[in-house]
Amino acid sequence: MVSLNAHGKGEVWKLLVLLSLLAAPRLNAQGAPHSADQQRILALETAWNQAEQQKDAAALKVLLGPELVYVDYDGTIMNKAEFLASVQSPSLHPERIVNESMNVQLYGAVAVVNGVYRESGVKSGKPYAFRGRFTDTWISARESWVCVASQSTLIMH
Amino acid sequence: MGLAYEHGNPRRQLRPRAGILPTGHFLRQEQGPMRTTNWLLILVCAGSLRVRAQEFGEGSSATAVLAQEHAWFDAQARSDNRVLDRIFDNALVYIEDGRLVTKGEYLSRVRLAGSHPGQITVETTTVHVFAGTAIVVGTYREIGVKDGKTFLRRWRFIDTWVNKQGSWILVAAGAAPLSK
Questions:
Q1: Interchain contact, B174 vs A75, CB within 8 Å
Q2: Which of residues 99-138 of A touch B (CB under 8 A)?
Q3: CATH of the domain at A52
Q4: Are A66 and B1 in contact, with CB atoms under 8 Å apart?
Q5: Which class in CATH covers the domain with range B3-177?
Q6: pLDDT in tens, B95-153
């Protein structure tokens, strides 16, 4: 899928395994237990936040499909390379990215996740904070899941 | 992993996309502060299908997805909730201005509001086809009237379609305002 150096790959999988182990049984919006795939995808969403917060491009490369379509809250569209570059921008320092709520809908080898996230940090020397709603589409690939589309919009109210 | 198909030249009329976005616009009209007073016309502009990668199966999927978007537009324009009900998945995730709109809420608004023509011009559309999944992304221009003044806004939309038992069903959709 994506080549990683040994060091980066080791860290990534350590992180993913840790998240999987820590993921307590959750309930979905309907109150039913999440399936293993749903729990795994939720863990991947959390891993995404952590990787983005730590500017860990190696981890993000694993999580994102090669043909990722990313639409940011300001309408900017990015492919995978552009998104990774934006995450690594020296002027951006996200300090906290957390998901407040998530719901996973499975369609066989496709999963749609929607949720609310809160992000704060420093950009170009100025502090920022916002809350947004995201929708991600994941597809199953080689016994794993990769995100192929992501969109976020700001919550104004 | 996937293939991409583009709709480019907006001079050639074809694009059925307007269904989603006028709807989003219409929904915002109903509840948001940006209240448009008059929907006049829906313009659908699109271009010839440019296929980056050649593969009949994937190409026909892209065509089928665009046909579904057309069906959405048509049904929206006619306030035909029966058709919309078939096109939308029951767990549809529709995002407007950071708010989640369920399928039930969406259909309810369509039923209550009836037909409200607006002016929407789709500028570009690209379909990315994966196995059993299609991502449609593009931009559109909206012209409306607020407080007696005409405004122009541009949006970026992204839709997710899933093939369920041979039919393409919309499972997620949303648009973000373009800041530039």
A1: no
A2: 105, 107-110, 112, 114, 132-133, 135, 137
A3: 3.10.450.50
A4: yes
A5: alpha beta
A6: 987 899 999 999 998 888 765 555 777 888 899 998 889 999 999 888 877 788 888 88
